[in-house]
């Protein structure tokens, strides 16, 4: 475990100088009359893993779902403030959520492969977005995505079998392969390991570190160890507020806010 | 006085038994109800059940059996000269006697022998009735006395009453099974009698259906022919047309309701579809025959088509309208039970709503939708009034929806309504068709319910 | 190191999705189209409903009106009581038909030819004599008097009055000839023709004459039949549900009962009719055409609906309530009768009403047990021959006269009114007692 923590560290110094890939500016979210997020300002830096931590119900998943407008699916949800992707307002009426989600992909808490073959699961994104022209193109995308997700070796002989037949960890890697088949710029992960056993979790964590090279990653996690292992920057949410954000090492070793300190030392959460 | 009044008497006795049992229990506890095993009302209930149950049971059995015994005795007592020779004559004569005895006109002038038999019939009936009254009241009183004698301070009245009620509950739950058994047995019995006359394979694979058996044996076509293939084909044609209407409309409505409609729209559209399901089929039949069939005929003539006024199209179309709500409400349930996580997964990849529906939700819900369609097909096959009123009687073996075809249910109704001669192949054929209908719909239902249940388990 | 890291090609070309406006436009067009199909389907279903209800009310509303003709009627003793006895029995059996014919001839003195006379007689209902007879029996002093009276018109004149006869059509294609039209117009211009609310439609039973036919017989038959159905299916259904939900052990046998009930709910209704015919009529020898047998057949048909609804209502009562009562030392039967059943009752009643509404609209099984007979009397008991409202609709729908078409639609409107009432009752019950645990 300590080895992996080290693996994640080297880039932390280089990151702060880069311009943010995504930027939240005074983001407020309401569910009906209830306010779930209060004025969150958060920068997501490119080619970094940003971890969102905090106790349950603190608004970290809500914020994550704002980043690719998944909250649009919920009728009573209303978002105020401004979120940009490469300086483009993603809530601007000229930008389409479908277009946005092709650029900002998502992996969910529970593995949710479609009831289709493994191949069709991965090919789904490229097909709807018209990324590939021919069958050969799709074959290539499927293979490379599964390879990047570290799943190809395990499933290459049964690509046409249903994705629901895989183990939990394999299903979650399939979902990651499905997300990267679209080649988004940012990948959002909503507690991707919470339904998995420790071995599967370790595999996914390695994968996340790999993916950082090509993608910007935002991950919500309830496990502080996981945040420490995989992320370069960490944001701590509490009761709908963004309490503190900073380099992962700094947050875990020297938090500036007492609430952060209380959480990471296990006094609440 | 009639049996209804007798039931009232038994109920009255039971109420008296309740009071008696209650009073005796309190007496046996010397006025202190607390030392009794059960509440006094349970003792009362025990006596009431002991009085009423056997009496009502006897009454029911008596009512079922007495007419048969009386019929038999009257017919056996007839003079040998007018003794009926075959079953048809037997039932005809019996009907005459019954009609005479209730003071109705008969089909022919009654001979003195018949009048005498009628008198015997009436006498026997009244003897039977009064002995029934006697025995039922006796049994009720005996039961009352017996149950009352059982009561003592330590008698576990509550357990006894609960035991009896439990048995009653079990009997009630068995009625459903008995109904199925009754259906299967009665259909099979009558069908066997049919197949004794018409070979089974001639019925199932014969291409010609004209069930009109002649009255006199030497008439042309006296035998009638019972090849049911044209009927099965007609049923399938109309069912197919119905499903072509109900399938797409029902499924698309369900999709719109489940995925697009806002709550306000749903609050209007859902009851509207339910209204469609609640309209009696005889109303659809009238609508088909009076409005839709002439309309289609008119259009057909407009484009130079020869459309029968009892075209399969009219009946199938209206039946389709009737089935829309089945398809839509079943599919709605099925689509709603597709987990939200699958929708999220698809939206998260940047799919539009319709892409998500077509590529993720429908494939995921497919088994359930297939189940819904099978149930709808079974419903269409068994639907009677629409086809009776709007489809024809002619058994054409055709796939042309503008021609008249006939269906299984239409034939059952035609063969059984009107004059009944209870042993002819014609009437029995209705039961053979009913048997086929029952097993086909049963098969479809069993498959459909299993498919739907499997599907539900997958996502629960 | 895992496969993931060995196989990854970090430098692989990144293929971004095509996000051209063109393609997006196409995708959204497909989206809109698909949405439109869905909306279109619902609207299509709605339009069909409107069309159905519209076509039925359109043809049926006029049946609630009936045309009457004002004629000068002289209660001629020659027809009623030639001997001058004043005997009620004589007045009862007198020739009122002949008297009306005579009066018609007197009212239209110019009619002489035989065929014209026949046409003239066809102006009033053949049963109008019965109405006059009742008047005379009630008030024998009418004999010998002469009055202007409103006499019920025949169905042909009724249809003419309601505008269902096309005057521009060829005479031979009409049921009303030119001569008759002339008479009609003359009567009309003298204010001797009038339409009134058709009370007979609600107070009489079936008849061969459309203007005499009413639904009272069928409605009474329906009520008697429903009474039997309710009396049998409600207690049996609820008790079966209680056993299956609260007492039955979960084993193969109860599984069989459950599967059996679900399948029974989907058996075509006509099969229940065959069961009734073979079992109740042929085997047990119950009377044909009787509400008793009809009610029994419909009870068997409704039973699965009631059992299924009752079971889900019982299931919705939370187990904590049962545990609380059991914990106080109540027996299981007491738990059910004191606590579970009262809480489940609204749901059970809702299911029962819906089941009864289905039974009320059912036709096919009743045809099998002979409730299709032509019956002119209002049934008085459960064993009298009777018919029910849906069967009456079926019978009238078969009659060729235009006036029966109108009455069929009106009977349908009455049936639908009953059904709407029952369903509203069920909805209100559900709303009022709806409870979320």
Summarize the structure.
The complex is a heterotrimer of chains A (about 270), B (about 450) and C (about 425). By secondary structure, chain A is an alpha/beta fold.
Which strands sit side by side, in order, in the main sheet of chain C?
2-1-3
User: SSE order of chain C, as H and E?
Assistant: HHEHHHHHEHHEHHHHHHHHHH
Low-confidence stretches of chain C: 1-12
Reported for the largest beta sheet of chain A, the result is:
6 strands, mixed
Stretches with pLDDT under 50, minimum 5 residues of chain A = 1-16
Give the overall silhouette of chain A: globular
Which bin fits the share of residues in helices of chain A?
25-40%
Average pLDDT metric of chain C: 84
How many E-type strands of chain A?
Answer: 10
Radius of gyration of chain A: 18 Å
Taking Cα atoms only, what radius of gyration of chain C do you get, to the nearest Å?
A: 33 Å
- Span between N and C termini of chain A? 23 Å
The topology string of helices and strands of chain A comes to: HEEEHEEHEHHHHEHEHEEHH
Helix content of chain C: 55-70%
Class by helix and strand content of chain A? alpha/beta
- What is the tally of helical segments of chain A? 11
The mean pLDDT of chain A is 84
Largest beta-sheet details of chain C: 3 strands, antiparallel
Residues in β-strands, percent of chain C = 5-15%
Kindly estimate the percentage of residues of chain A that lie in beta strands according to DSSP: 15-25%
């Amino acid at each position: 475990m300590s080895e992996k923590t080290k693996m994640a560290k080297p880039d932390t110094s280089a990151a702060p100088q880069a311009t943010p890939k995504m930027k939240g500016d005074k983001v407020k979210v309401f569910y009906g009359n209830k306010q779930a997020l209060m004025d969150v300002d958060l920068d997501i830096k490119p080619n970094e893993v940003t971890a969102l931590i905090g106790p349950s119900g603190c608004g970290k998943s809500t914020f994550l779902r704002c980043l690719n407008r998944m909250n649009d699916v919920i009728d009573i949800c209303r978002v105020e403030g401004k979120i940009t992707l490469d300086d483009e307002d993603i809530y601007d009426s000229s930008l389409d959520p479908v277009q946005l989600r092709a650029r900002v992909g998502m992996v969910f808490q529970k593995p949710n492969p479609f009831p289709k073959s493994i191949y069709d699961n991965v090919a789904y994104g490229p097909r709807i977005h018209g990324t590939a022209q021919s069958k050969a193109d799709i074959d290539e995308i499927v293979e490379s995505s599964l390879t990047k997700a570290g799943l190809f070796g395990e499933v290459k002989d049964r690509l046409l079998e249903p994705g629901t037949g895989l183990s939990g960890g394999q299903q979650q890697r399939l979902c990651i392969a499905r997300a990267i088949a679209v080649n988004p710029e940012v990948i959002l992960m909503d507690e991707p390991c919470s339904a998995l056993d420790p071995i599967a979790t370790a595999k996914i964590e390695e994968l996340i570190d790999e993916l950082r090279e090509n993608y910007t990653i935002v991950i919500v996690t309830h496990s502080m160890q996981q945040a420490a292992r995989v992320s370069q920057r960490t944001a701590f949410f509490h009761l709908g507020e963004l309490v503190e954000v900073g380099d992962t090492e700094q947050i875990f070793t020297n938090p500036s806010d007492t609430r952060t300190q209380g959480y990471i030392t296990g006094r609440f959460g | 006085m009639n049996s209804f009044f007798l039931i009232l008497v038994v109920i009255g006795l039971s109420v008296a038994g309740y009071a008696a049992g209650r009073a005796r229990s309190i007496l046996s506890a010397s006025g202190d109800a607390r030392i009794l095993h059960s509440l006094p009302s349970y003792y009362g209930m025990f006596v009431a059940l002991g009085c009423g149950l056997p009496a009502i049971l006897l009454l029911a059995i008596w009512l079922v059996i007495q007419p048969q015994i009386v019929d038999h005795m009257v017919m056996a007592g007839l003079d040998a000269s007018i003794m009926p020779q075959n079953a048809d004559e037997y039932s005809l004569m019996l009907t005459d006697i019954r009609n005479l005895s209730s003071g109705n006109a008969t089909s022919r002038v009654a001979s003195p022998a018949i009048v005498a038999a009628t008198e015997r019939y009436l006498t026997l009936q009244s003897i039977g009735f009064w002995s029934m009254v006697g025995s039922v009241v006796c049994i009720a009183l005996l039961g009352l006395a017996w149950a009352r004698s059982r009561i003592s301070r330590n008698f576990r009245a509550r357990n006894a009453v609960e035991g009896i009620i439990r048995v009653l509950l079990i009997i009630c739950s068995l009625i459903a099974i008995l109904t199925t058994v009754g259906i299967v047995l009665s259909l099979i019995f009558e069908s066997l009698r049919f197949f004794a006359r018409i070979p089974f394979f001639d019925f199932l694979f014969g291409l010609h259906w004209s069930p009109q058996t002649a009255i006199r044996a030497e008439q042309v076509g006296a035998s009638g022919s019972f090849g049911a293939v044209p009927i099965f084909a007609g049923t399938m044609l109309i069912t197919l047309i119905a499903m072509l209407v109900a399938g797409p409309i029902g499924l698309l409505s369900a999709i719109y309701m489940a995925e697009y409609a806002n709550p306000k729209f749903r609050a209007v559209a859902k009851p509207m579809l339910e209204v469609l399901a609640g309209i009696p089929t005889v109303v659809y039949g009238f609508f088909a025959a009076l409005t839709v069939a002439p309309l289609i005929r008119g259009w057909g003539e407009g484009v130079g088509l020869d459309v029968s006024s009892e075209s399969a199209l009219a009946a199938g179309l209206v039946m389709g309208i009737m089935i829309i709500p089945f398809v839509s409400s079943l599919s709605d349930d099925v689509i709603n039970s597709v987990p939200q996580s699958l929708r999220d997964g698809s939206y998260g990849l940047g799919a539009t709503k319709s892409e998500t529906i077509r590529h993720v939700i429908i494939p995921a819900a497919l088994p359930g939708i297939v189940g819904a369609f099978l149930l709808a097909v079974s419903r269409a096959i068994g639907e009677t009034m629409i086809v009776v009123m709007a489809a024809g009687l002619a058994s054409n073996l055709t796939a042309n929806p503008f021609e008249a075809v006939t269906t299984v249910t239409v034939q059952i109704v035609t063969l059984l309504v009107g004059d009944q001669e209870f042993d002819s192949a014609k009437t029995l054929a209705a039961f053979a068709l009913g048997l086929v209908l029952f097993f086909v719909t049963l098969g479809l239902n069993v498959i459909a319910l299993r498919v739907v249940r499997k599907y539900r388990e997958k996502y629960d | 190191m895992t496969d993931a890291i060995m196989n990854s090609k970090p430098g692989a070309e990144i293929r971004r999705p095509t996000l051209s406006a063109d393609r997006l436009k196409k995708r959204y067009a497909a989206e809109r189209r698909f949405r439109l199909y869905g909306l279109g389907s619902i609207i299509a279903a709605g339009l069909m409903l409107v069309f159905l209800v519209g076509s039925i009310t359109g043809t049926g509303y006029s049946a609630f009106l009936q045309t009457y003709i004002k004629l000068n009627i002289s209660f001629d003793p020659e027809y009623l009581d030639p001997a001058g006895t004043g005997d009620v029995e004589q007045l009862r059996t007198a020739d009122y038909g002949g008297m009306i014919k005579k009066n018609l001839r007197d009212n239209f003195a110019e009619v002489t030819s035989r065929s014209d006379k026949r046409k003239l007689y066809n102006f009033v209902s053949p049963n109008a004599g019965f109405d006059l007879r009742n008047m005379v029996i009630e008030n024998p002093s009418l004999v010998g008097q002469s009055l202007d009276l409103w006499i019920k018109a025949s169905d042909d004149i009724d249809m003419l009055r309601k505008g269902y006869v096309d005057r521009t059509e060829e005479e031979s294609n009409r049921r009303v000839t030119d001569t008759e039209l002339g008479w009609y117009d003359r009567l009309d211009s003298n204010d001797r023709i009038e339409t009134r609310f058709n009370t007979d439609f609600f107070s009489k039973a079936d008849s061969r004459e459309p203007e005499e036919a009413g639904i009272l017989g069928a409605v009474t038959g329906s009520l008697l039949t429903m009474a039997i159905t309710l009396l049998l299916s409600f207690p049996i259904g609820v008790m079966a549900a209680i056993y299956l939900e609260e007492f039955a052990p979960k084993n193969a046998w109860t599984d069989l009962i459950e599967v059996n009930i679900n399948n029974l709910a989907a058996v075509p209704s006509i099969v229940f009719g065959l069961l009734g015919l073979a079992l109740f009529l042929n085997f047990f020898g119950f009377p044909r055409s009787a509400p008793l047998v009809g009610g029994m057949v419909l009870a068997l048909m409704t039973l699965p609906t009631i059992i299924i609804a009752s079971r889900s209502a019982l299931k919705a009562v939370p187990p904590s309530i049962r545990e609380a009562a059991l914990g106080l030392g109540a027996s299981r039967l007491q738990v059910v009768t004191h606590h579970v059943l009262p809480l489940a009752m609204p749901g059970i009643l809702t299911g029962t009403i819906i089941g009864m509404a289905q039974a009320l609209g059912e036709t096919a099984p009743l045809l099998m047990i002979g409730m299709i007979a032509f019956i002119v009397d209002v049934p008085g008991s459960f064993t009298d021959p009777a018919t029910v409202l849906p069967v009456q609709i079926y019978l009238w729908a078969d009659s060729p006269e235009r006036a029966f078409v109108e009455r069929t639609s009106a009977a349908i409107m009455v049936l639908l009114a009953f059904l709407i009432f029952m369903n509203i009752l069920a909805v209100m019950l559900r709303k009022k007692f709806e409870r979320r645990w």
